[in-house]
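Lab notebook, bench 4. The sequencing result for the construct came back, and we need a structural model before the next group meeting so we can plan mutations. Quick request posted to the team channel:

Model the 3D structure of this chain.
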Amino acid sequence: MEVFERGNGKDSDGLVMNRRTFAASLTTLLTALAIERTPAGQARTRLILLGTGGGPRPRAATMSSAQVIVAGNRLYVVDCGDGVARQLVLANLPLPALRHVFVTHHHSDHNADYGNLLLLAWASGLRERVDTWGPPPIAQITRLFLEMSATDIDTRIVDEGRSPLAPLLHVHEVTQPGVLINEDGVKVTAAVATHPMIKAALAYRFDCGDRSIVISGDTAMSDAVIALAKGADVLVHEAFFPEAAERLAARLPSATRLKEHLLASHTTAEECGKIAAAADVKLLVLSHFVPADDPQITEQMWIDAARRHFKGRIIAGRDLMEI
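Done. Here's the predicted structure in token form:
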């Protein structure tokens, strides 16, 4: 299992492995050996963390939540934090290869650029069907975005000879757990997570030919997510550091309500370790960090908190890290 970050290095592939990701790759070596080998001639399924910060506030160091799974040259994007299209470009992935978009829930740090991703992929040459999945009201969100963007879309159809965007989009509202797709060697299963104040929050599991990947979305500790992740090769799980709640809340006028929300709706890094152990996953990847930019919390502190209950491999995710 390779763990890379894209940076400003001058190597021929545009990839650099810094000290932190080098260390992470060493910690995942045994996991890599345990994961089923890719069958001969089959491209390896790739997982890239596009955005690892929690919360909608723009930050210099991290983008809000987004991941992409690349299977058979098709892009499966999970969540669309602000800037997701640019992150895909920085990851050297072609926007016209977008085939599926999965939204875990309708908080802005997960869906702010949902419509923009579809529009910018189309403007970049998308000509094939894209299926989008998420809780209600994703159909209404899609319709209203197309309505808002009609001037731009209609102008480009006339001036640039593009095909209409709307017929390419097939929207699926997900309200129940179960298998969503099982085609092209990829099966996607949804579970209903626990994220109070949101009617429906989803977690997704991708079973590909060479490995299985689970994305938790936002959730408190959830038996449904544990069941979804059972035996998975990789679990990407949101992580909350409760000791920093006071510092985070102190910067905002709604401190009491914010703390209540964080404690009721998110999973502590320590609980992430419990979930990974209960699900018997091979690799735990911490992401959607809350707080996302507290200088007093080091990557090792996130890992150490999860390590109290999980003895397998743990990585603290970082934007544009490939796992």
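The mean pLDDT is 87.
Will bring this to the meeting.
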